[in-house]
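Give me a protein, keeping tokens residue-aligned:
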Amino acid sequence: MKETPSTCPYCGVGCGVIIQSDGDTITGVRGDPHHPANFGRLCTKGSTLHLTASRPVTLQTRLLQPQLRPQRGQAAHPIDWDAALDTAAQRFAATIDRHGPDAVGFYLSGQLLTEDYYVFNKLAKGLIGTNNIDTNSRLCMSSAVAGYKATLGADAPPACYDDLGHAQCLFIAGSNTAWAHPIVFRRIEDARAANPAMKIIVADPRRTDTAAMADLFLPLLPGSDVMLFNAMLHVMLREGWVDQGYIARHTSGFADLQAVVQDCTPERAAAVCGLPPQDIATAARWFAGVESMAQGGPRRPTLSLYCQGLNQSTSGTAKNAALIHLHLACGQIGQPGAGPFSLTGQPNAMGGREVGGLANLLPAHRDMANPDHRAEVARLWGVESVPARPGKTAVEMFQAAADGEIKALWIACTNPAQSLPDQATVRRALQRAEFVVVQEAFATTATAQYADLLLPATTWGEKTGTVTNSERRISRVRAAVAAPGGARHDWQIALALAQRLERHLRPGQPTLFPYAGDTAQACAEAIWNEHRETTRGRDLDITGLTWAALEADGPQQWPYPS
């Protein structure tokens, strides 16, 4: 029996796990007692991870070798890896030659490792010259990204799980944490037990299990979050609870915000939100943390937790920004127990954001609209330039394929024919695209039925690399067993495509992908080291964090020594 420390692949909490294996079979899993995200605890999904890697699953539903479909509607037949990758490179190169780089698109997943994301991002934006690379993280986290950038200037959650133990008020909005992030909820229960005076506010149209522990439950009407937050700020301003010193030292534009919330009285908000005005005022007082200030004490820290109830909305960015405005207005940020904390949905959506793995991002939280940032990335990658125009987002990419604008699609580690909205458009896109590659661990997904080329990828328990959780903690993912059949790591597949495409797009020039090593882990380390160098001097500066430190000392949390 062998035990291998790794990380759970399900959600953004980023729990550490110990994988138990016997030969080439994963037999069990338990929580890692030394991992600072979960300290040995696991939810129901995490504790049954080994069942997804059982031999019946591996042998019956896994995709074990590349398969090519000669014609649409025909059965796919096995081919070897060289033939599969040569075919993919030739078809993508031909499409780029005929129609330009924006005629291809890459749709990825928040379940990929950071190394996978990095190679794909450099392949699309650096080698091919298109920003048409997006992920299913777009559907859950793009509002959080935009909200952080609009208010704090960077997509950088400024809080961590330890803040739960320091907070005197928790404001939970649009998140049923008890169900969606159970291990975080256990930590909330621990914090409440250690500090019974902690106030918990839950804003949610539904009375969830999370709401059951609230001191103040705000069952607001769907879509009225911005009005609630603005009304709370209105009360803070009226009662003198904002931190004028903090506002003057650290913010700009507050006068404009005051004008916006001037008419957002609790009485007006009550009609919009369906809440009693006195509950809105109570929420504002608790959030501002002013109870102890009357006796000369410090402001009590408030931590907000929020998730898809704010993010998955036509006004998601506005909801995120309005909540963050409350933290800035009363200085509830930059101290233990205080700050706006977006809970990530997928295990590495944060890592993908860090490497710039969305259609409008660049590595290390650089801004695509900034010409200096683009020039810096081009220099780091060794290319003349990176494209300035944002690429197609997830939904836009499939609409463009359905319209015939995007001719070739590469889909990795996600199942859009089942998971994306507007399925009629998605399936029309998959049918109309001239060439569809699906890089997948399982042969039975809905999207696999549309693939011209199927490429078998490794999955949990077989991969090596890193992931970043909600609190920006980088954890190692380790392989406990060898990959079955001909499955390859996602970054290996992207790397092989990139090196073949270089022969078409950059003949005779030095490679942009010089990752080498005797083992897969050595290659993954080389990719990670390059990613690390792209962060130098940025908000995400992990230049002081080595692969050896991750191996020896365990998960590392931002900020890192530089």
In short: The chain has a mean pLDDT of 95. The chain is about 40% helix and 15% strand. The first helix runs from residue 44 to 47. The chain has three domains: 2-60, 67-137+348-557, 141-342.
